[in-house]
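worker-03 picked up job from queue 'complexes'. Input manifest follows; two sequence lines, order preserved.
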Amino acid sequence: MAIQVFNSMDYEEFINKFGNVIEKCPLIAAAVWTNHPFTSLGALEKMFEDFIDLLPPSGQEGILRCHIDLAGRDLLKGTLSSESQAEQNQAGLTDLTLDQRSQIRELNASYKNKFHFPFVICARMNNKDTIFRQISIRIHNSPEHELKIGIAEVKKICHLRLLDIFKQVSHNSKF
Amino acid sequence: MAIQVFNSMDYEEFINKFGNVIEKCPLIAAAVWTNHPFTSLGALEKMFEDFIDLLPPSGQEGILRCHIDLAGRDLLKGTLSSESQAEQNQAGLTDLTLDQRSQIRELNASYKNKFHFPFVICARMNNKDTIFRQISIRIHNSPEHELKIGIAEVKKICHLRLLDIFKQVSHNSKF
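worker-03 finished. Artifact:
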């Protein structure tokens, strides 16, 4: 069982494995480890969510600010985290026309100018079209509402990254 | 004035500059940015400290766990953060005998085995001898007390890293 493999990890192994399920926030995985052993993958996921929910608004904004602009220069340069790179690739964001690239650059800039954190969306649950639509809609939200939506998207990203690790470990432990 | 330079930074520039004043925790710098403008370097430093103090114990343990073992393999391989590398170098930790290296490896392991986070000390306020002495003494503390001491050391490291950035920016803004 993958959960037994996770429960047997010391904190260093755990951070190596889970350190980026919340983008660039190994602190959160390192804090979650305190609560091991976990009864299930769902219980482990809930620990990540609970930790995020208990942060003050500035801390939640901080989590969003650790994300790089969607479809930005780092995607083209290949300098994103490997998880982000794969996710944005899958959503078709490496395959934009010049016009679309300039459009998303302007939308990202307007969004950040209003909210002071970047637009975060679970790319794997979306595609080019829904991402463009969502940023165009969400930019009209209030900052408080948008912080809630951004954090909900962070949790979806976390969910899928946890599932990936779970599948990988389940597969390996069969051999 | 350096503080004016910091206050004029957007969150991306701020994270680039301050993202590692708490080792591997850009989330904290990203959260602190919310409270800009800062009236002074002292006020900025207090924001880092306040954020840390408001975290639950698991979050504070998480901060400690984002630190790599002092004088460990990563120091020799040169794969530490540039700040840690310079700090440990300055404390003479790159210059240990084989015996001292094996001694610190054992002390680190015993410490982590007891506390489930690594031994953290402000290397620049110490030297080889005081570091060996401190770990030998601190290993007898209670986990609660040792968490407090570890976090106090994180704040000293943060203080010196902030001063470095401040000096660097003050120097550059003269030209």
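worker-03 released lock.
Chain A has a mean pLDDT of 94.
Chain A has ten helices and no strands.
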